[in-house]
Amino acid sequence: MNENHFKFSTSVILIPFLLVLALWILFWVDIRFHLNIEQLGIYPRTFFGLIGIVCAPFLHGNLEHLYNNSIPLLILLTALRYFYRDLFFKIMINGILLSGFITWIIGRESIHIGASSLIYVLASFIFFKGIMTKYYRLVALSLLVVLVYGSMVWYIFPNIKEGISWEGHLAGLITGFVFALIYKTPEYKKLIKYDWQQPDYNPSEDKFMQRFDENGIFVNPPVIEEEPEFESYYNSSHSVNYEFKEKNLD
User: Fold this and answer.
1) Of 47, 54, 146, 195, which sits most exposed with the smallest number of CB within 10 A?
2) Closest alpha carbon to 54 in 97, 18, 13
3) How far is CA 245 from CA 239, 241, 242, 250, in A?
4) Are 60 and 74 in contact (CB under 8 A)?
5) Which of 158, 162, 38, 170 shows the shortest CA–CA distance to 100?
6) Which residues make Cβ contacts (< 8 Å) with residue 217, sequence separation at least 6?
7) Do residues 130 and 198 make contact, with C-beta atoms less than 8 angstroms apart?
8) CA-to-CA dists, residue 46 to 42, 49, 51, 89, 97, angstroms
9) Over the stretch 109-119, which tens digit does the pLDDT of each residue have?
10) What is this structure's pTM?
11) Is residue 182 classed as helix, strand or coil in its secondary structure?
């Protein structure tokens, strides 16, 4: 697969936008009708808490919580859709399920909600997968993720900030790394800039390489052949005379 794999389409913007918009609509419905649906979050190691594995990423406790998650989620979903189009829904859906299940296992006895776990899945997958592919565009994307969201790594540790689910963040980081290992991406061709990088390149047919021996020593100086038009000109029977006069400087 070459660089044509990266093609922009309306879905690159539209799908992430609709997903984030759905979070805001759900939050408005919850506030408007006083549904208290945040109770459907992940409550670790309880049967009822299993429902939160699916519901938790769509639930937020307040407007600040939702706003803080919306921007990175929109950016990372867009990047995932553009650079890993074939894996987009697999990473998103399976990321929600696996990171939620890990949170359900290791989490404190509290309700865990928010899309931050999915954000960590996306950031982790994009970073590790880009480094593993060694493809310059994806490596650059990995470095950009580190530059913009590298500070998120501190929030996978306990007691860094109260009121956050560090267990969900850690679960997301682990999930993204696992997905980077198991999900395959196309073999990206390296950019071909020179003739000798072509797969069918034959040095014996290269006129430049014919001037060197097997040890790289220059042994065959180039022969400059005159162009036909110049050759006929030099061999012409017509004479050309130049006349000049000395200028008197006195």
Assistant:
1) 47
2) 97
3) 20, 14, 10, 15
4) no
5) 170
6) none
7) no
8) 9, 5, 10, 28, 16
9) 999 999 999 99
10) 0.75
11) helix
